[in-house]
Hints:
With 374 residues, the protein is α/β, with parallel strands linked by helices. The protein folds into two domains: 5-117 and 205-228, Peroxisomal Thiolase, Chain A, domain 1, CATH 3.40.47; 136-203 and 231-373, 3-Layer(aba) Sandwich (Peroxisomal Thiolase, Chain A, domain 1), CATH 3.40.47.10. It is built from 13 helices and eleven strands. The strands form two sheets. The chain has a nine-stranded mixed beta sheet, sandwiched between helices. Strands 5-6 form a two-stranded antiparallel ribbon. Strand 10 (354-361) and strand 11 (366-373) form a beta hairpin. Helix 1 (23-38) crosses helix 2 (61-69) and helix 6 crosses helix 10. GO terms for molecular function: acyltransferase activity, transferring groups other than amino-acyl groups. It comes from Baekduia soli.
Amino acid sequence: MRGKAVIAGFGHTAHGKLPGRTPLSMTVEAVAGALADAQVEKDAVDAVFVKYPTSGFQTMFGQTVAEALGLQPRIGGVWDQGGATNISMISFAAMAIEHGQCEVALVTTADNPRTGTRQAYERGWGDDAVYGWFGTPAGYAMIAQRHMAEYGTTHEQLGAIAVACRKHGAANPAAHLRKPLTMDEYMDAAWVVEPLRRDDCCLISDGGAAVVVMSAERAAQLGVPDPVPILGFGQGQTSYEVPLRPTLTETQAAISARTAFAMAGIGPADVDVAQIYDCFTPTVLLALEDYGFCRKGQGGSFVEDGALEVGGALPLNTSGGLLSETGMPGMQLVIEGVRQIRGTSTTQVPDAGICVVANQGGIMHTHSTLVLGR
């Protein structure tokens, strides 16, 4: 399937604090932008893949979205793998297209945790909540502590990830947070859950985003101006809660990446730019290791000295990621991957030919990988 499906267009709302906006209204706006970018009429769409709104689950929300769009899709519905959902839905759409189940698919996500409710992020996780394991950051803090204990990873190394993402976000006029971060500022910030400081943690943002997926052949027929080929995709899932995992420093991201890289016919050395899920800085650290960009335990040294900035060894999250562009779960990384391959990013990597995008959900429970390129 390498290159048989393409991302034909994308659209998104503003990012940040959007009072009065519902997930449904933001979905419609993002879809309209994606169809306009692809220069495809709405009537061509026959599949609608929807990530459910994390902060407020709604029954049959996929059908509600289709109704609001005025569509009668052959395939439609809501999927949930947390932050891994968006890439997974893109892969499901590509496979459905390949097997003749649909021709043109919309893949959408929207939520309003900033101005609506953020209860999904604040709730206790299992019985351990009574001992203080409360809210999403606690699980990631435990993983970070273990990586530090096993490999000597430092606070400054986690900070290097935050500094790079914030630098790229500051150059993005659409970013929720356009404020660069120095290492001194990072180190002076308060703990959220030790060892995670404020700037190790992603934003909480309202917003919506969508992409249009179709076959390369169909894109040529419809005259899509700048389709970006999907070269590979993969998934991996960890089915242990954090306290029960046999190891905290290895994830199924390795399986996801290996599957996608094999489909694309590439290796880590072939990647020009990466968009890696950065809900918390240790997520990036483990993904870099599990993807094979460096050896296990060497993620900390890999990210030092500007390695993740444009001009470094592996430019990362070039529109700011979840730490700066928007805290929305994952689609912004896909969209920035499309921009990089098109050559239209605000922080463009020269001659970017291969972009790897990583999504992750839960507390490193689910993982999905997308390889884009020419």
